[in-house]
Amino acid sequence: MTVEQICKALKCGLFADRDTIQDAQEYVADICNSLPPEYKMGVYTAIGVLLNTVAKELEKREGSIFVPVPETSNDEDE
Questions:
Q1: 58 torsion bin: left (phi>0), alpha (psi -120 to 50), beta (else)
Q2: Do 6 and 54 meet the contact criterion of CB atoms below 8 Å apart?
Q3: What is the pLDDT of residue 41?
Q4: In what helix (H) or strand (E) does residue 60 lie, and over which residues does it extend?
Q5: What predicted TM-score, i.e. pTM, was given to this entire model?
Q6: What whole-number distance in Å separates Cα of residue 12 and Cα of residue 28?
Q7: Alpha-carbon distance 77 to 63, whole Å?
Q8: Across the chain, which distance is largest between two alpha carbons, in Å?
Q9: Residue 71's pLDDT is what?
Q10: Are 32 and 46 in contact, with CB atoms under 8 Å apart?
Q11: Cα gap 23→40, rounded to integer Å
Q12: Are 28 and 47 in contact, with CB atoms under 8 Å apart?
């Protein structure tokens, strides 16, 4: 699959999105925390499997689509 095909397969106009992956993960956690305890693990597992599969597909294409981000230092002593 191409990245375009992956994105097309994943997008659904019925749902919103978030600005970042972290924001989306926090949203999932908020929703899961509102569920009865017996359902939480199943939801987290299903989402984890989906995200791992998407990550694996994107990693297959890493060399052709991703530009490395230069490392920056957060040390204020320098």
A1: alpha
A2: yes
A3: 92
A4: helix 37-60
A5: 0.61
A6: 16
A7: 35
A8: 50
A9: 66
A10: no
A11: 19
A12: yes
Query: Is residue 42 classed as helix, strand or coil in its secondary structure?
Result: helix
Amino acid at site 1: M
The tokens for 42 are 């199943």
Domain ranges of the chain: 3-63
Q: What is the three-class DSSP state of 15?
A: coil
Q: Which two tokens stand for residue 18?
A: 């978030």
3-state class (DSSP) for residue 7: helix
Tokens found for residue 61: 């294409």
Distance set, CA 50 to CA 3, 4, 10, 27, 44 (Å): 15, 17, 10, 16, 10
Q: Chain-centre distance of CA 26, in angstroms?
A: 11
Secondary structure element (H or E) that encloses residue 57, with its range:
helix 37-60
- pLDDT digit string, tens, across residues 12-57: 889 998 998 889 989 999 999 999 999 999 998 999 898 888 888 8
